[in-house]
What does this fold into?
Amino acid sequence: MCGLGRGIASTGRLNPDGIEPALVNLRRFVALARAIGVDHMAVMATAAVRDASDGEAFAGEVERQCRVQVDIIDGSEEACLSGAGVLAGIPDADGIVVDLGGGSVELVRVCPPTQPILSGGAEQISGGISLPLGPLRLDGPGDNTKALSETIERALADLPVCGRGGTGKNLYLVGGAARAIARLHMEHTQYPLHIITGTPLPERRPKASSTLSAGSPVNH
It folds into this structure.
């Protein structure tokens, strides 16, 4: 847990305490990948790096130390890649993928191949967006729950991806923050299986059943 995006909302820069641990981890992962003979590595930087004023410099340092190309992807591509990941594991996924990380949240509409999103087309992924919401990005309001809720509600208001056939569909939650929530729920309820993917999480409304996991559905 490097927390590159911690404090970025106020400083506009990467968290200086997270840069060195991130470089150490990246060097380790690249070394392990080369040791087992990986013939292609796609290294992508997401929200923290693309939003930070020193993000390109950090990506350049990664390229220098690890001898790999780093692509800084935009929010739409990040959302669509999350959607593709869910469809790879759940081919009949039908709803909205929500990728909740430390510094951003990505949303994208997905549907089964038999129900293409665009009329007459075969697209299973559409409407990917990225919002500057996440535990590291929203640490400014502190314990002010009301201010935090209002910030999130303003950001989510009238999003096309939520209204584009998404009402009543499943939510597929992925990302580190979502996994942390799922693990907390597992511990709190003494869930018998220590497998995060597919972990059930009931909604506040008892009439609805739902699940929360990395790539599992949540009814809404």
